[in-house]
Amino acid sequence: MVYGAIMVLSILMAVGYVVESPLETGVVLFGSVFAIVCAEKFAETLSKPLESDTAPTLPDLRSAWHHSRDTLIAANIPTCLFIAAWFGLITPAFALVGSQLFATSLLALVGARVGWRSTGSIFWLSVSAVCAGSVGVLLAALKYVIH
Questions:
Q1: DSSP letter at 17?
Q2: Does the first or last residue of the chain, that is N or C, have fewer Cβ atoms within 10 Å of its Cβ?
Q3: What integer is the mean pLDDT of 29-43?
């Protein structure tokens, strides 16, 4: 999910202040994350058989898909927000900001989980959440600096 959230924020960094076509933005966002994840998992799945001179098996392909689902989850809500903007249910600006907030929150939640699982301490849960979430804030801020 961290990888997916970073991809979403990076792709949104390329979007200007004004979203001209919410549908196009949503399709490009999800399609880009999907393509990157599939390329990565496909390369990983093929590299193992190449090293061992065997053919990839159906369980190998299932495993690759299983491991890519978590990354794709990060793109689902932002894509839905842009589709909702296309239907006129929300503004494109809200979809953009909401997508950035979702991806940043996802990073913070994963960071919090790591902090909690590794120490069981509220202090380290908070530190980890802030550290991971700050990556999202930095990427979102870079978008506004660049544009």
A1: S
A2: C
A3: 86
Q: In this structure, what token pair is assigned to residue 10? A: 């990076």
pLDDT tens sequence across 37-96: 888 877 877 787 777 777 777 887 777 777 777 788 889 999 999 999 999 999 999 999
Q: Cβ–Cβ contacts within 10 Å for residue 49, how many?
A: 13
| pTM for this model (two decimals) | 0.81
Residue at token pair 């098996």:
57
Rounded Cα–Cα distance for residues 130 and 113 (Å): 12
List the structure tokens of 52. Answer: 């061992």
Q: Give the residue among 28, 7, 14, 9 at the shortest CA–CA distance from 79.
A: 28
What secondary structure letter does DSSP report for 147? -
**Backbone φ and ψ of 16, nearest 5°:** -70, -175
Q: Is the dihedral of CA 141, 110, 89, 25 positive or negative?
A: positive
Nearby residues of 62 by Cβ (< 8 Å), 6 or more positions away: none
